[in-house]
Amino acid sequence: MPALLAAGHRVTVLDNFLFGQSSLNPLCADANFDVYRGDARDEEVLKPLLSRADVIIPLAALVGAPICNHDKIGAETINRDAILTLMRLASREQRILMPVTNSGYGIGEPGKLCTEETPLRPITLYGRTKVEAERAVLDRGNSISFRLATVFGMSPRMRIDLLVNDFVYRAVNDRALVLFEAHFKRNYIHVQDVARAFLHGIENFDRMRDQPYNVGLSDANLSKLELCRRIHRLLPKFAFLEAPVGEDPDKRDYIVSNEKIERTGYQPEHSLDQGIAELIKGFRMLRNTVYGNA
Length: 294
Description:
Elements: H1 2-6, E1 11-15, E2 33-37, H2 43-50, E3 55-56, H3 65-70, H4 72-89, E4 95-101, E5 113-114, H5 125-140, E6 143-148, E7 150-152, H6 163-173, E8 176-179, E9 185-190, H7 191-203, H8 205-208, E10 211-215, E11 221-223, H9 224-234, E12 239-242, E13 255-256, H10 259-262, H11 272-283
Parallel strand pairs: 1-2, 3-4, 4-6, 5-13, 6-10, 7-9, 8-12
Antiparallel strand pairs: 9-11
């Protein structure tokens, strides 16, 4: 939100404040910011807010496999059904920038990059609901879909349970970590670069419309083990070992190409190493498990 406001946009937020967050508090002094408490599935709440929007960014979601498995009905009604309602209420002229997840690729093939043409084979309920929402949005037209890599970095509504954030949190506070499925690879992106991707989509909408785009760091397709080694460079006392048993609830294992969005002129500004250094400082302050989704 701060990035959109700083770029001169008027921003209206609808949120049910499920996590009791106060991250929007500093924005209330900005005349171009407005906020409403409500449910993104409620048509009567949506209608008056949609009537004055040029661009719609449906961020409301249960994000991640654990929370979706905990609330399966919520996952389906928020992640997918609310998007279908929104599209029915929105006009054809209104533009939609849809955030989804690159976990829709499921399990990739060794040595092969997942591009936007790679078949989507989501394994989790989270992945399936986001793939279904993306398909509906792109079929509707006048939309862009961003398939986000695993997000990392400090933010006002902090997520400690995201993989990089989680591993750095454990490295700072426990100095030890047991890895299962340590060879599983995934891609990563800083939270501020996600905000920049939305701005890029707004500014370049006409030439990007009706397409999906992977959004991640092209030099950060790393396994869990490789990620721990990167953290170890900055925290030499961090110890980690592989376990022969255990299962990743998200089951994602793939490498991703971000070339398509890079060809439009988008480039991330925050490296993985910068993000790790940032998180180390942040986790010297935060030691509270309320900073998660599940």
